[in-house]
Amino acid sequence: MSHVLAAVAWPYANGPRHIGHVSGFGVPSDVFSRYMRMAGHDVLMVSGTDEHGTPIQVQADADGVTPRELADRYNRVIVEDLHGLGLSYDLFTRTTTRNHYAVTQELFGGLLANNYIIRKTTLGAKSPSTGRTLPDRYIEGTCPICGYDSARGDQCDNCGNQLDPEQLINPRSKINGEVPEFVETEHFFLDLPAFAQAIGNWLDQRENWRPNVLKFSRNLLDDLQPRAITRDLEWGVPIPLDDWRDRNDKRIYVWFDAVIGYLSASVEWARRTGDPEAWRKWWSADGEGKDSLAYYFMGKDNIVFHSVIWPAILLGYSGEGDSGGEPGSLGRLNLPTEVVSSEYLTMEGKKFSSSRRVVIYVRDFLSRYDPDALRYFIAAAGPEANDTDFTWAEFVRRNNDELVAGWGNLVNRSISMAAKNFGFVPPAIDLTPEDEALLAVAREGFTTVGELIGKHRQKAAIGEAMRVVAEANKYLSDQAPWKLKDEADKPRMGTVLHVALQVVSDANTLLSPFLPHSAQKVHELLGSTGTHQPMPSIVEVEDLDGGPSYPILTGDYTVGARWESVPLEAGTPLAAPKPVFKKLDTTVIEEELARLSS
Ligand SMILES: [Zn+2]
Predict the structure, then answer these.
(1) Element (H, E) at 8
(2) How far, in Å, is the centroid of ligand 1 from the Cα of 168?
(3) Separation of 104 CA from ligand 1 center, angstroms?
(4) What tens digit of pLDDT does each residue of 374-384 get?
(5) Whole-structure pTM value
(6) Which of 28, 238, 418, 424 has a Cα at 20 to 30 A from 588?
(7) Strand (E) positions, 300-344?
């Protein structure tokens, strides 16, 4: 048994999330966490909404609300969406809690004390009309390298070069078109070059990482520069220094506080359980958390933050960069065991885009389809190791051919035949080699499927679980229990159905990390009671330190099935089953495509 941290990327609270987002961070982290809990590990799965930064400020201005009001709105939308998908967070919180502010400021202070934070004067762009800082990506102008006339202040999308906004020819604000003013401004920078060696050594010891993630991370070490961790902005965590904390024009940069969320959410979770030090079991590099494991889940655009920048913050706070130092009051902290990054999901051959309406939001999806249908698609056909296209035709095909005609059909015909002919789970008498062979396939699934999930190969894992289903369907066709109607054949019919029901039970457990909602239904159809797959709840809570209240996702996941075959008891009553999965009419394909282009 290990302590396992599942640290899940923080969705940005400037709008509802689409299915591309939850394919990258949401469903894979939940499948992994559910499996690890079933296998007996003590899992802590944390995340929350990322709510600071310029995009939220800019959108709040456009909507005529405060940034906090905008964040409140989308925090709630996102909490409800993740709840609808059944994602089993121990705590899904947000970055606007006072606890998060305190932990962020503690890490800032620790890094500063160990001399890993540098003070620098730079040129910043300001809007002459509002006096506000214009972030790089809100400045547009002509690329000094290729002449493209819509280059952004951070990058030219035409030639791909990284830019600084003052390099742009004819710079203008994307918000209101005015010419920005460049003024000197003082900021704090994280001294990333001081960690190149320590991070290089750590990356050298990484095992099992996806090779592209490791290679990408190593390449980043060749050109590390100090990185700004403060910003000219009024919306964010205040800088915890005298002469700075009361200024309302300087804040900690959103990326810096967002990665600290993994730690602050763990601390908040512990405080809410009544054991405020319990987070150390997952985080302390000394003592009780020493052997814990930490898995970080995200889309590939976020690798740099998790494989280089967050480790640098953790190392610096622990006093383990080039300048040495002492750990802060939280002690030495664990680095990631593995950075699990997914590739991109596209939609009907195009990049997801809210503005161009190439999008389906999680909530619209869940209003028309079952969560397990989406979870199945993501696990079986999602962007695990390659960019992958979501098409409605493929979604309908997989739902109908695999979930309904494969798994749903096995469940339905086994249980209905047993219910009709016996009314209970019939006893198994004299197993044949064919019976034994099928039972063995299902039992072996616990090893193969479990190992694949543990290695983040979920596509192969669900493929193996569905292979058990296919073998069981073939077994039923071969044994044809419906032909064993004579009184003399009834014991053999009972045996075949017992074997089939046992394999339904085993396959249900194997599929349950992927399909938790339907796993609970199948569990009940088999006449079993109690929780098979626990579900998260939305709970309205008070801020622990006096801020406004907010909704969290949490749950008791200590109940539920273990990762093992549970022998069915002959005589357990069975009723005629209701279908577990819904067949989709192929007309939905055209309806959805029409919605996309409207
Ligand atoms: Zn260019």
Answers:
(1) strand 3-8
(2) 10
(3) 36
(4) 999 999 999 99
(5) 0.94
(6) 28
(7) 338-342
